[in-house]
Specification:
With about 475 residues, this protein is α/β, with parallel strands linked by helices. It has helices spanning about 40-55, 60-75, 75-90, 90-110, 145-160, 175-185, 200-205, 220-230, 255-265, 285-300, 320-335, 365-370, 385-395, 410-415, 450-455, and strands at about 5-10, 10-15, 20-25, 30-35, 115-120, 125-135, 135-140, 165, 190-195, 215, 235-240, 245-250, 280-285, 340, 355-360, 375-385, 400-405, 425, 440, 445, 450, 460-465. The chain has two domains: about 5-240 and about 440-465, 3-Layer(aba) Sandwich (Aldehyde Dehydrogenase, Chain A, domain 1); about 245-435, Aldehyde Dehydrogenase, Chain A, domain 2 (3-Layer(aba) Sandwich). It binds nicotinamide-adenine-dinucleotide.
């Protein structure tokens, strides 16, 4: 039997079959999560469909309930964060920050309204535009920020009057299952159902006839499968997919002053962040200084179990991801790159650890530059002209985010404007806000999350035309 139940129709549901969830710091089983059966899935969809009708009617109830979701997260933040560290690997301080950020998202959407727009009101007619909920939304999330990324979906979907069936990643289902139980205290039964299971549960959800929308965050490869599956029933789609964010540093900044900021923008959550810096372009004239400064920070970073207070970088979340990062680093070295950091193996038993690695002299065709590494390995690349840096930054199928770092803010913004990505930062990176639209261009996604645009994406417009 699993240690955490599914939440279906407001009730805790146990299943006959369960799956092990490992603690990445030890590589051993931490707890068992339930495996949702097709019958459980049907029950979750049915309860969501039934609950949605009443939920859509009462705007004030929805606002109040979302405020209570925020308060529930805050009141239980230590319990949720320690479970998050145990299943995801991130340091406890970062886990607490993730829970606090999720609470901020619920609070933001609780206060956001979608007033009726009157686009004509004269002798001929009054024309109003109303936002209607879509119905049942299926939310599918990855393992890097399970709580925050589910809040980006649940909060606007519920605010708009939809009900939700949430499926977290099989690597990190526990915190979502816990939240399902906690939120059952403050949401009407069936408004939020949380189910878990292996990856094979995903296609059963996307092909299910009930949801009117799939909101998916994960890899580009899976996102394409989700889009194909959703097409057969014309479900609405939001796809937040992979990224290979470039940061371009201009020649008017001091490497020693900004190295620390650049490092943590790349190694946040151990590099397992869709909007981390994944390629760093610096002027050739200061190349050695950047490599040395970043390598010194990497070598001093405390790597360990996320539950230990001193830990700054935890393990990778899972063994396939650790192996992939190691493979990309090895392949870069075979292609002529140099490891600028300590490369002696970490002695951490069976945990999924990888030393933070700064790579110098990496050719652009190396996979660690061309693909999304999603881990603690950063290629530092020299450029000779800004135009060349922009072309190289844009020469990827991804387009999630990017950044430009410089003292001349106007110049930095002009360069940021030429980046082909959904978010372009100046002198910061990986700084999302509930208010700002978050969207990927090219293979980084479809649709938009956050802000009023994110809320709108969970609605269907209805024009009401009153002839006079
Ligand atoms: P993944 O694509 O392997 O899995 C994501 C989710 O999809 C999981 O819940 C998984 O069980 C489910 N799934 C797997 N196969 C499915 C299928 N055929 N149909 C439906 N669902 C299926 O991704 P991951 O490894 O968990 O996450 C890492 C990836 O997520 C990286 O590429 C990262 O860049 C991306 N990501 C993107 C964002 C963003 O906002 N753009 C945020 C975080 C992570």
């Amino acid at each position: 039997m699993s240690d955490y139940p599914l939440t279906i129709n407001g009730r805790a549901v146990t299943t006959a079959e369960s799956m092990a969830v490992n603690n990445p710091a030890t590589g051993t089983r931490y707890a068992d999560a339930p495996v949702c059966t097709p019958e459980n899935l049907d029950a979750a969809m049915r309860s969501a469909q039934e609950a949605q009708i009443g939920w859509a009617r009462d705007d004030a109830q929805r606002k109040h309930a979302l405020q209570q979701c925020a308060a529930t997260l805050t009141a239980n933040s230590e319990r949720i964060a320690s479970l998050l560290t145990a299943e995801q690997g991130k340091p406890l301080t970062e886990a607490l920050r993730e829970v606090a950020a999720a609470a901020a998202w619920y609070g933001y959407y609780a206060s956001l309204d979608q007033p009726v727009q009157v686009i004509q009101d004269d002798d001929a007619a009054r024309i109003e535009v109303h936002h209607k909920p879509l119905g049942v939304v299926a939310a599918i999330t990855p393992w890097n920020y399970p709580i925050l990324l589910s809040s980006w979906k649940i909060a606007p979907a519920l605010r708009a009057g939809n009900s939700v069936v949430l499926k977290p990643s099989p690597f990190t289902p526990l915190t979502s299952l816990l939240i399902g139980q906690l939120f059952a205290e403050v949401l009407p039964a069936g408004v939020l159902n949380v189910i878990s299971g292996p990856n094979e549960l995903g296609p059963l959800i996307t092909a299910h006839p009930t949801p009117r929308k799939i909101s998916f965050t994960g890899s580009t490869q899976t996102g394409k499968q989700v889009a194909a599956s959703a097409a057969t029933t014309l479900k609405r789609l939001t796809l937040e997919l992979g990224g290979n964010d470039a940061a371009i540093v201009l020649d008017d900044v001091d490497p020693d002053t900004i190295a620390e900021k650049l490092f943590w923008a790349a190694f946040i959550n151990n590099g397992q962040t869709c909007i981390a810096i994944k390629r760093l372009y610096v002027p050739r004239s200061a190349y050695g200084k950047y490599v040395d400064a970043l390598a010194a920070i990497a070598d001093q970073a405390v790597v360990g179990d996320g539950s230990a207070p001193a830990t700054q970088l935890g393990p990778l979340n899972n063994e396939p991801q650790r192996a992939r990062v190691a493979e990309l680093v090895n392949e870069a070295v075979q292609s002529g790159a140099k490891i600028a950091t300590d490369s002696t193996p970490l002695d951490r038993g069976t945990g999924y650890f990888h030393r933070p690695t700064i790579l110098a002299d990496v050719p652009d065709h190396a996979r660690v530059v061309a693909e999304e590494q999603f881990g603690p390995a950063l290629p530092v690349l020299a450029y000779d002209s800004i135009d060349e840096a922009i072309v190289r930054a844009n020469s990827t199928d991804f387009g999630l985010a990017g950044s430009v770092w410089g003292s001349d803010i106007d110049l930095a913004q002009k360069i940021a404007d030429r980046l082909e990505c959904g978010t372009a930062w100046v002198n910061t990176h990986a700084a999302p806000s509930p208010r700002s639209p978050f969207t990927g261009v090219k293979d980084s996604g479809l649709g938009v999350e956050n802000g009023p645009w994110g809320l709108e994406s969970y609605t269907q417009l209805q024009t009401q035309y009153l002839a006079r």
